[in-house]
Please model this.
Amino acid sequence: QQQVKQSPQSLIVQKGGISIINCAYENTAFDYFPWYQQFPGKGPALLIAIRPDVSEKKEGRFTISFNKSAKQFSLHIMDSQPGDSATYFCAASTQGGKLIFGQGTELSVKP
Amino acid sequence: GAGVSQSPSNKVTEKGKDVELRCDPISGHTALYWYRQSLGQGLEFLIYFQGNSAPDKSGLPSDRFSAERTGGSVSTLTIQRTQQEDSAVYLCASREGSGGTYNEQFFGPGTRLTVL
Model:
């Protein structure tokens, strides 16, 4: 019930390509869905977040697509760059409380 | 301004010893969280402090783990009688605002704990 499932575990994309990471959840009480980016040796940093009252949110090259009925959400990185190479985590929470994280996706963007 | 800071950045200890990990949240942030990041378990919630409310301890894996937050600011995570499976990166995060808001959680750099 509390799990968030994330796929794929790793992803290799060519520079300029689109990176897509998917997450699914079970708990319908979740009402906040952030994506975090983590570089080696650093703590996670918020990339973009969405509430379930909208189906899509875009910030620059990053877009979250949200499907409430399917209980799924995804991160799309357009025009992927080598500097985007990092580990990405989806997460979910209720009312600003604890974050339940997906297992993480290690993205490598090849030049 | 300053972000979330954690100390030490690395800690190596022997099995059975107690350790204390410190978190200094962003000034004015009322919510403070501890998470653990390990290869096998990913990022796991441990404990959450919100203002003067009783902490949410639902993620603590055993009674060897405890945490306190003094004066609504600095927090210390204590692990007693450490075991090798406690080896992980312990991350602290803080957030502005009261419960029911959706402000960003800002993470510190973490403390890497190695139990020999």
Notes: Residues 5-98 of chain B form a domain with the Immunoglobulin-like fold (CATH 2.60.40.10). The first strand of chain B starts at residue 5 and ends at 7. Residues 11 and 113 of chain B are 5 Å apart (CA to CA). Chain B has a mean pLDDT of 92.
